[in-house]
Amino acid sequence: MRILEVESTEKFVGPASAPLQLVRIGYRGAAEPTPVRIEGDGLAGHAVAEPGDGVIEVPVHVADAVPGQQRNARVNGTDFTFTVAEPGWTVFMVGHFHYDPVWWNTQANYTSVWTENPLGACRQTNGFNLVRGHLDWARDNPDYKFVLAEVDYLKPYWDTRPQDRAELRGLIEQGRVEVMGGTYNEPSTNLTDAETTIRNLVAGMGFQRDIMGNPTGPSTAWQLDVFGHDPQFPGLAADVGLTSSAWARGPFHQWGPMADQGDPRRMQFPSEFEWIAPSGRGLLTHYMPAHYAAGWWMDASATLADAEDEVYRLFAEMKKVAATRNVLLPVGTDFTPPNRWITEIHRDWNTRYTWPKFVCALPSEFFAAVRAELAQRGADPSPQTRDMNPIYTGCHVSYIDTKQANRAAESAVLGAERFAVFAAALTGVDYPEAALAKAWSQLSYGAHHDAITGSEADQVYLDLLTSWRDAWQLGAETRDNALAALSGLVDSGAGDASAVVWNPVAHDRTDIVTVRLQTPLPAGAHVIAPDGTQLPAHVEHGGTTVSWLASDVPSLGWQAYRLTPGPDVGGWQPVTGTRISNELHQLTADPERGGGISSWRHRGREMVIDGGLGNQLAVYDEYPRHPQSGEGPWHLVPSGNLFTSAVARDVTVQAYRGPLGERLVVSGRIRTVLTYTQTVTLWQGVDRVDCTTTIDEFTGADHLLRLRWPCPVPGAMPVAEVADAVIGRGFGLLHEPSGRAVDTARHPWTLDTPANRWFGLSATARISAGGGSRAVSVAEVVTPNGLTAPRALMVALVRAGVTATCSDAEGPRYGNLDVDSNLPDTRIALGGPDRNAFTRAVLTAADPAYTAELQRQLERHGTARVWVPAETSLSEVWVPGADLTGPRALPVLVVAARDDDALHSEITRVAEELASAEIVVHQDADAAMEPFEARTVALLNRGVPSFAVDSAGTLHTALLRSCTSWPSASWTDDPRRTAPDGSAFQLQHWTHTFDYALVAGDGDWRHAAIPARSAEFADPLQAVAVAGGDGRLAASGSLLRLDPGGGVVLGALKAAGNPTACGSAEPVDPTTVTLRLVETRGADVAVTLCSDVGTLTVLGRADLLEQSYDHPAPDRLHGYEVATITARLGAEALGASARLAPEAEAAQPLYARYWLHNRGPAPLGGLPMTPALHPHRVAALPGTRLSLDLTVASDCVDAVLSGTLTVQCPAGWTSTTTRQAVRLAAGDHQSIPLAVTVPDDIRPGLYPVRVRLDPTGDMSGAWRQSVEDVTVVRVAEPGRDRLLYIDDPAGVEVMAGRSARLTVTVGTDAHADLAVEAHLISPWGTWEWAGPAVLGAVVPAGGRVQVGFDIAPPVWARPGTWWALVRVAGAGALAYSAAVRMAVLAPAAVGGD
């Protein structure tokens, strides 16, 4: 017999207490049964090989086994190396399917319609089929366990398949199904406000725990596919009761460290770790080293043995980075049914092997095993505060208008909540909880990682616009109504015209405010402040807008002003020159270089680098698809070429002066790609440079537009606000030394990242030594074996704004772009050279003076801190394709001591020092600090999150992008629609306006108060025109004041409770309020709350679900804490108010299968009762009797719901039931057989059978809406009959200040009336004057109806060219009109406009 190959495996047989390791031997030519004997150092094993060729596994006893040890061994005289394996391993095979509610396909298709045809390797199908398929597999295979996650498919299934509720609940109780996530969907939280993430968690927990009757609730944030994580996410998730998280993307690039046969050990920390937020709260987290699809592909194996070999191969690789002897293997991928081999592996493998075990399992079982083993070892998971960004850089700018819309909607809804609380308290009007819950559900829906990211197909983009518009509309309407109600209570003085100015942020502020007047002023105006001071006024647009500087408007408060006629119209007047200024800023434009800002002086200091241009536009050519992966708009793919506005033609620069400030207006054309108009304004009394860039005539195809401000600050690093925190980030890698753009075919990682409301150059923390300082943004903390995990240091660093990776001295270093998604700029090595191998490597490579310095300090103090500078400057090594893993590539702070106890004490002192955002090092050795200035420059944005700061100190923000790569232009439901010029909507060929601002200050971003200033820019003052009056509120006051207001912001203020989200019939009490307070500087602080309109009594702390808990000091916040406080608001009713928000959808009745209309989440009110007719579509012949199933289900958790069912058949049809009362206990459902008879003499066609549920009894208005479901019966062959169709509208061109109509005709060939909803879809920038957003109508049987929308841009509307189309939906059918041009023309000039 000939031995071909010998391998010592990870497999064991025999008793678990004394397992035998298997050696796998391949052989050839055994003439007879042949003994196989293994011998070696402490090794003994034997078996018998069968005749012929084959493979045999030989059990081997290993004496004094030390896992990983290698020993010399022999098998039948053949030498080999035996590696000692470790018993006790378990592979947890988790059955799952990843679900996208939208992406290249639509919500309707993904939820319940689509199945891959022909079936591919993943056998993909829709959510309904997947849930039922996994349930069936579990029924037939008692060993099978699986997870369910997103509310996007769970609620539709739960409501329309209530007969499956008991089965699903039973599997949950048996521990065979785990409901995952705790979120509404898988959101990309790095692109939304923190409050959107919180409400996403509230919606997810409300449905998955309360409505589904799952009292233990989800425990794991199942964020498989998200394209970016906000650093605060683990803390927020922990605060709703989640204890773990799992995802496939974050510290590494998109496919993980095992992509392309990569070694997972390239990662610097185990796959199980504690992911810690800047707040200091964390989750036990698992990153998926082989992606979330890792275990699926063995589905294609021809045999069970092949499938088991694939699982074993994955185990052998993934175990290399496991923190314990437990490996999580996700078995599933996008839209996949149960894997065909998973249960057979579970049954077969474990009968043959003791270890490793391959078991069908749930994530909760995996995390429990990890915790148990760590506890047994007395160990803690590795603490990590690493920034898990960027992943997909294109996501921060693709479909930029949706990001602007999302930000505007978030701002509107947050303002609506806080002002509605006080409007309700002071007028007695109902707090509009249901309407605001609907707005948040739309924002949660849009936060999905294939929505807000801009990675979706064109049709999906159009559908998503309706969701963001719905959220914005509900928020803006509620906010405006609440402010109108509150303004009527203010003593605004005598006179015909007054304005009450409202401050949405919770600190006093001074800023420009503008009031819009229904009745224009005849000429100019004077503005009279509450103290009688006459203020300069800026009057525009024929007297319809008046602006002034509102000084010291109180925190979340108001200030009343009187408007009196003046003789002069004070507007913008042209002046000569190209320079403007106020008391703090001076700007100069260069007409010869596109009108860019050649000089910006702030308090006398020049901010723009010599020869540079601020406010410059740069157009980058991009590849039509990713050069390596071939993928689409989620990547930025510059190809190397770029051109800027410095070479623009037809450039004009005009300066203006007005009563309140000065302005530059610049225009030009960049080749044939775009025209631009840029406005830069300096207001007197405002320390900010306000900017607007409007892009017109955009024709880009695979072009990226960035804006630049070259404003270097010596020694500063990039700093950005994320949701509810501020962190440092690395430099972007945008350009080659020649100035050309980076070519992503050679260097794919540009490191563009998202910012929430601002980014800039500053210092988060700094290390000071040798008379100089070094800013630190991103760190690696290198720890020696055996040292207790430095969690306190990691938390202290991140509270100072420094995200950090905690790594092992013996392991790989952080900083290689081949695997790491971002780069560090500093390292901290814990332990001296005798304790830490990395310290030893650094000191060996450095000048001996640093070793001597370390020894000197240790001898003198017993502890040491030594700053070892890098070999070269950071700018020299921070280059495309950077590898910063060498011991001298980055500067290193060595923290050492004589022993571990002293080392722990010194680490504690370093952590404590970080409370001042500075680590001080006293050393004689040369610190070689480069120049450093304690200054800050920042760019504030409104919904333009993408940014990069290059190592030369130029601030870049990506404004706009056109991408032709799939799924750009994709369309599911024919006919495909395009923009009016025939381009895909992804190309963005219409007018875009971007608002941003520049601020600067001495000191770091804390000293310069950048968070407060960005909040002011993000939330402008609101002015409400009133007729004047003697309301009982003083002329100036505060609804809510936080003391101190500098370091704590108001994240949210709302009526306490979330009844819609959790299915409760209990109304909210607006006198019990929830406040979300956020510490913004990384420091501890005590807060007091007060109000000028009543008493505010703190009741205590609550979690994010608003469940109270004991807290020793509810008024104290630690660094970056997101604290939820409940309080009692005692206020006297001072007046009355009309309803603040709608209680019902515009289109009635509601459609039970709302997802088939691609309209996002459930309608307003959440559909507490749902009728469902099955089947949804059915064929029949004349004279037949149809059996339909009718179910009615309740999602209410705490009340009995009642209603009346009405069956509406086509003319001449009969049904066994026409009207029936229903009464459902909490969470109950009822099934009603329904038979329908088709007449004998009926002609072929489409015949809708409608069932309407009219709720009865005592319930909220939102819950009293009628709901219908429709079965469409296809009788015989109806030919070309259409259930729904729409005629295309004509384009609209209208002058600002006038109005026009956009109308469509909607029709049906069906033989019964059809209730439809028509959405006007148009891009962000048009919603204020094009509407209403949605209309309801009834189309008569075989008839048509006209639906019209008003296009009425006010006189102050910006001219531009957009588009509009109408989507009509009814009974599960959809029709989209063609998109037509919608242009707004400038009004005729009036006065000083």
TrEMBL record:
A Pfam short name: Alpha-mann_mid
Keywords (A to Z) from UniProt: Glycosidase, Hydrolase, Metal-binding
Classification via InterPro entries: A-galactase_NEW3, Gal_mutarotase_sf_dom, Glyco_hydro/deAcase_b/a-brl, Glyco_hydro_38_cen, Glyco_hydro_38_cen_sf, Glyco_hydro_38_N, Glyco_hydro_38_N_sf, Glyco_hydro_57/38_cen_sf
Domain of life the protein comes from: Bacteria
SUPFAM superfamilies listed in its UniProt record: Families 57/38 glycoside transferase middle domain, Galactose mutarotase-like, Glycoside hydrolase/deacetylase
Gene Ontology biological process terms in this record: mannose metabolic process; oligosaccharide catabolic process
GO MF annotation: an example: carbohydrate binding
Keyword Nucleotidyltransferase: no
Keyword Ion transport annotated: no
Family label: Belongs to the glycosyl hydrolase 38 family.
Protein name, entry field: Alpha-mannosidase
Organism: Mycolicibacter minnesotensis
